[in-house]
Amino acid sequence: MATKLIAGFALREGAAVLFMGLALFWSAGRIDWWPAWALIAVSSAWSVGTTLAILRHGPDLLAERLRPRKGAKRWDQAIMGIHAILQLATFIVAGLDQRYGWTGALPLATQGAALITGSLAYSFAIWATASNPFFSKIVRIQTDRGHTVAAAGPYRLVRHPAYAGAVLTLISVPILLASRPALVIGSVDAILMILRTALEDRTLQAELPGYREYARQVHHRLLPGLW
Fold first, then answer.
1. Residue 186: other Cβ atoms inside 10 A
2. Is the domain covering 2-217 a CATH 1.10.3720.10 domain?
3. Where are the domains positioned within the chain?
4. Are 201 and 160 in contact (CB under 8 A)?
5. pTM exceeds 0.85 for this model
6. Which residues make Cβ contacts (< 8 Å) with residue 206, sequence separation at least 6?
7. Distance of CA 138 to CAs 160, 196, 214, Å?
8. What mean pLDDT is reported for the chain?
9. How far is CA 18 from the centre of its chain?
10. What sign does the CA torsion over 26, 92, 176, 17 have?
11. Tens digits of per-residue pLDDT, 177-226?
C-alpha cells in the first residue's frame, strides 16, 4: 500500500514539474534558457524534499495529500482553482516575455538573488511539511486522523510557515525568469495566498481545538512583527 502511495505521489509531482517545463519552453520557443532550467531543478528538489518530509509522518499523510478535493471548503476550491490558472499564466507569460523581449535583461545578480530566495522559501515550506503531520493540501479539520495543532519547527515562528514560503516563491520566480508582466501575475497570486492564509486561520480558530491558545502564543500568521 505504501509503495503504491509513494508511486502515485511521485507520478503526480513529476507530472507537475514536466508540465511546468513544457509551459515555459513552449511559450519561450527555446530550451537554452538557464533560469527556466534552474527553476525546474529547484522545483524537482522541492518535490523530492516534500516527499521525504511527508514520508517522515508515514503513509497516512501521503494518502491525505493524494485524496480528492472532496470535502474542501467552497472558498478553498475557488482560491486554489484561480491559483492554478495564475501559476500557468505566470509560466506562459514569462516564456512569451523571453521570446519577445518585453522586459529585457535583468542584472544577473538580481536573478541570482531571486533564485536563492526561492530556494530558501522552498526549504522553509519543506521544513513546515516535516513539522506538521496534518499537512493537507486542502483546508479541513482531519478528525478522522486525530487532528491536533502543529506547534513545532517553523510553527514556533509563524502560524502558517508554508504560506510564507509560497508567497516568497510566487514573487521570486518571475524575477528569476526576468519578466515584469509575470511578476504582476505572481503578485496577484501571492495576494490570493495571503487571503487563503487569513481564511484558513479563521477556520482553524473556529474548528480546531487548541488553535486559539496556540494563536495567543504565536501572534503572527506569515511575517514576524508584521502580520
1. 26
2. no
3. 2-217
4. yes
5. yes
6. none
7. 14, 11, 21
8. 94
9. 17
10. negative
11. 999 999 999 999 999 999 999 999 999 999 999 999 999 999 999 988 87
3-state DSSP call for residue 158? coil
Kindly state the cell numbers that stand for 173: 520566480
Cell 511559450, located at residue: 27
Instruction: Name which of 190, 88, 79, 97 is nearest 138 in CA terms.
Output: 79
What does the CA dihedral 136, 137, 143, 148 come to, rounded to 10 degrees? Answer: 40
Please name the residue ranges forming H helices in the chain: 2-28, 34-55, 59-66, 74-100, 108-131, 161-176, 180-207, 211-217
Please give the single-letter amino acid code of residue 226. L
Q: What are 124-149's pLDDT values in tens digits?
A: 999 999 999 999 988 999 988 899 99
C-alpha cell at 157: 515562528
CB atoms under 10 Å from CB of 70, counted, come to: 8
CA–CA distance, 51 with 77 (Å, rounded to integer): 23
Name the nearest CA neighbour of 179 among 190, 171, 189, 169.
171
58's grid cell: 508515514
